[in-house]
Amino acid sequence: MIVIINYGMGNLHSVYTQCKRVGFELIISSKQSDIENADKLILPGVGHFSKGMEKLKELNLIEVLSKKVIQQETPILGICLGMQLLSKKSEEGNVTGLGWIDAETNRFSIENNQKYKIPHMGWNNVYTTNKSPIMHGISESDELYFVHSYHLECEAEDIIIGETDYCYRFVSAIQKDNIYGTQFHPEKSHDSGLKILKNFLETV
């Protein structure tokens, strides 16, 4: 069973629809029992980091998610805010995250405000830094869709599988064992994004 985690912060139905398009059955749920029985998890997200953590706490999902992901090594894909929540902490609200990866979430530091706007929004390339099954078949000429004001800064370079240039090079995709994350939105990235979702759902 594949579960899209509903904590009130994501474009859940876009993720659901695109996963269905590539041939997979899945459910959207905030029930602990569904998460406990999941074979794979997707944590989407749009919005404020501190609000996202607050919602996960309100729904009593942090403990069950940690058990599934850290102890049972269930594959999980964090998308946009969902990836940021995997980090130790964020400048956005100055709060702690799930802490599953050795990274922090920080706001873009922009010097040229006329050339570079925040949020970073639009289509950009992702440059592969380390091999990962979710990026199989994705080339550096493929463009993926971004909309965000914050990005990960990782202590360990070996978990970085993709980087993107926007005023400077930032982390746009990560993998640590069974934990995957994309700063871009695969569900909004047409054929390239569908390929990434299929890679996660089929081969991970």
Question: Which features would summarize this protein structure in a list?
Answer:
globular; Rossmann fold; single chain; four-stranded mixed beta sheet; alpha/beta; 14 strands; 204 residues
Strand and helix layout:
Layout: E1 2-5, H1 12-21, E2 27-29, H2 32-36, E3 40-43, H3 49-58, H4 62-71, E4 76-79, H5 81-84, E5 89-90, E6 95-96, E7 103-107, E8 120-125, E9 127-128, E10 143-148, E11 150-154, E12 160-166, E13 168-176, E14 179-182, H6 190-203
Parallel strand pairs: 1-2, 1-3, 3-4, 4-14, 5-7
Antiparallel strand pairs: 5-6, 7-11, 8-10, 9-12, 12-13, 13-14
Describe this structure in words.
The model has no long low-confidence stretch (mean pLDDT 95). It is globular, with a radius of gyration of 16 Å. It has one domain (2-203): Rossmann fold. By secondary structure, it is α/β, with parallel strands linked by helices. The chain has 6 helices and 14 strands. The relative contact order is 0.18. The strands form 3 sheets. Strands 2-1-3-4-14-13-12-9 form an 8-stranded mixed sheet. The chain has a 4-stranded mixed sheet with strand order 6-5-7-11, covered by helices on one side. The chain has a two-stranded antiparallel ribbon with strand order 8-10.
